[in-house]
Amino acid sequence: MCFLNGTVIQNIQIDNDLKSLRCFVKRASSFSNDLALDVDPADPIFIMEFTGIYNNLLLEVLHNQSKTCYVVNAVEIKNSLGLTRGKNDIVDAQRIAEYAYRFHDKLSIWAPLEANILKLNGLRTHRSQLIKVRKQLTQGAQDNKKFLGSDVFKVIDKSNSKIEKILNEQIDAVDEKILETIKADLKLKTNYDLLTSVPGIGPITASALICVTKNFTRFDSAKKLSCYCGVVPFEKSSGNKIGKPHLSHAANKDLKALLHLGAGSILNSKHFLGQYYRRLVADGKHKSLARNNLKIKC
């Protein structure tokens, strides 16, 4: 942790538990003049980089004490620093504090998620973990059959089949719980029904969009959401050199993959979106570009 007011005041190390964090927040608030950043001197600004569930305890303490807090993507902080060399915990804390000192007026104040969206996030994370484990078990099955002895392969295959069956049951159970959570909330269910009415958008993609957009309150335009998903091409030009627009790698890759699969499912359909794709291809547009346009439409 780093206290900062233009210059570094103090660096401290604290444990990530509720008691230590409450003491830290109380101590930070006691710096009456040192932490004045265009706010009440007794109410300092807190900023942290997003680290998933490891933020939760501190965010809980700050929210309960009504403190101003910002949670920022680590890539955004890194890109704002310019040329840097080396890193450690102390340096990282100072860089995060410096970022807050310079840009706090341009950041969005953190607000807690609604209970059901927080629940959906946890369920979706757990589902992804189960899918990953199942993939690790099954992706080498053909190689095992080809290169291992038949006796060894039978033992491995029998074991994997049992585990895969359990994993499939657990994945189905999580899917049911996700749907149950959505149906229990009228706002979530309304948007879920609208999403699944779009060709190519199934239950998994719909729940992902609801979570990522905080039930469509995070982005104020479809274009911003498309940028976040990495399906909007950006120009790359300099002077007289005009480059072709390219998709940015700064995107939510999981959501982009879901949209890619959804678009692929309607390429040959009779729906107007499928007709739209085929018309673009017939007009000479490359299939990958036409498919990307379809993702934006979805």
Structure, described:
By secondary structure, the chain is mostly helical. It folds into three domains: 2-106, no CATH class; 115-218; 227-297, no CATH class. Helices cover 57% and strands 8% of the residues. It is built from 13 helices and eight strands. The protein has a two-stranded antiparallel sheet. A two-stranded parallel sheet has the order 3-4. It has a two-stranded antiparallel ribbon with strand order 5-8. Helix 1 crosses helix 2 (56-64) and helix 5 (115-138) packs antiparallel against helix 7.
Task: Supply the key terms.
single chain; 298 residues; mainly alpha; 3 domains; two-stranded parallel ribbon; 13 helices; 8% strand
Describe the protein's topology:
Blueprint: E1 2-5, E2 7-11, H1 18-29, E3 46-49, H2 56-64, E4 69-72, H3 74-79, H4 89-103, H5 115-138, H6 141-147, H7 150-183, H8 186-196, H9 203-212, H10 222-229, E5 233-234, E6 237-238, E7 241-242, E8 246-247, H11 253-264, H12 272-282, H13 287-297
Parallel strand pairs: 3-4
Antiparallel strand pairs: 1-2, 5-8, 6-7
Helix pairs in contact: 1-2, 5-7, 5-9, 8-9, 9-11, 11-13, 12-13
In short:
With 298 residues, this protein is mainly alpha-helical. Helices cover 57% and strands 8% of the residues.
